[in-house]
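Anyone opening a protein record will find just a pair of labelled lines. A complete record is shown below as an example:
=====
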Amino acid sequence: MKHDLIYQIKADFLKTLAHPMRLKIIEELKSGEKSVGYLTKNLNVGQPSISRHLIALRNAGVLISRQEKTSVYYAIADQDIFTFLRPIALMLRKQFKSSEKVLRTLGKN
């Protein structure tokens, strides 16, 4: 029973990350803190939409925020998120390479 709660917490965290825009935001913040305005402009997304994603990531503990006058700035809370995401990228590259080999073989028939 106690373990079910742990699995639920892990699943909820992964659900938070499971959105292309949220992964883009994380990648954009890899180089350092950015304002909401900067992210809106750079990711070509409306302010209400980007704010929803930023809040979800902050609530999950992925991001931290601070306010300076009228601007809100976001940054990565723990750089270990990249240690977590890197193996996923490596696994996907392997899968794509494998699929590419299969497709080349099919093309020869």
About this structure: The radius of gyration is 18 Å. The helical segments are 2-17, 20-28, 36-43, 47-59, 80-108.
